[in-house]
Design goal:
It is a single chain. Helices cover 49% and strands 21% of the residues. With 169 residues, it is an alpha+beta fold. The protein has one domain. A 4-stranded mixed beta sheet has the order 1-3-4-5, covered by helices on one side. Strands 2-6 form a two-stranded antiparallel ribbon. A hairpin with a 2-residue loop joins strand 3 and strand 4. The longest helix is centred in the last third of the chain and has 26 residues.
């Protein structure tokens, strides 16, 4: 959920240390289920609305971010708002493999449950889903800590996009 326009995060939204545009490498992405496509769209919308993204060094934003996967690595091409390249951050994806696999399994159970399961079952699955999502976003923040400083909400939304990039044909 995005922060209210007149809320306390309004000043943070104007900070130069933020992402104003984000794209995914669609060449490496296969056709996605409607639920996954919805999660991707919400993550991008919420990320653009409110985020904190500060690459190390003297780089100034706002930033455009392009995410892709190459050779089992997450590639984050950080650019100026006008798409002028600034730097590239590359992270191995192997530390995320277990969390992403477990997250996909729980998400599939969740999407099936919301069709017919009782509310208590849906809530239990959703708690597990949120727990794995938190674990993944914490790992992402830890892996980025010497490269890019991000807040928890930004990490959560970026982790969602990392998961989307894991979907292969």
């Amino acid at each position: 959920m995005s922060a209210p326009k007149d809320g306390p995060d309004k000043a943070a939204a104007r900070s130069p240390n933020r992402i104003v545009k984000i794209t995914l490498d669609e060449k490496s992405v296969v056709r996605r289920a409607p639920e996954i496509e919805h999660e991707r769209a919400v993550a991008i919308f919420d990320l653009i609305e409110d985020n904190s993204f500060a690459p190390t060094g003297d780089l100034e934003g706002p930033f455009a971010l392009h995410l892709s996967v190459a050779d089992n690595r997450l590639v984050m091409d950080i650019k100026r708002e006008n798409d002028q390249p600034l730097t590239r951050v590359v992270l191995p994806l192997s530390p995320f493999r277990r969390i992403v696999k477990d997250y996909f399994q729980v998400c599939e159970s969740y999407f099936q449950a919301i069709r017919s399961a009782p509310a208590s079952r849906i809530e239990a699955i959703d708690m597990g889903r949120r727990g794995l999502h938190n674990e993944g976003s914490d790992l992402l923040r830890q892996r980025l800590k010497d490269k890019v400083e991000i807040d928890n909400d930004t990490a959560r939304r970026l982790f969602t996009l990392v998961c989307v990039l894991h979907i292969r044909g």
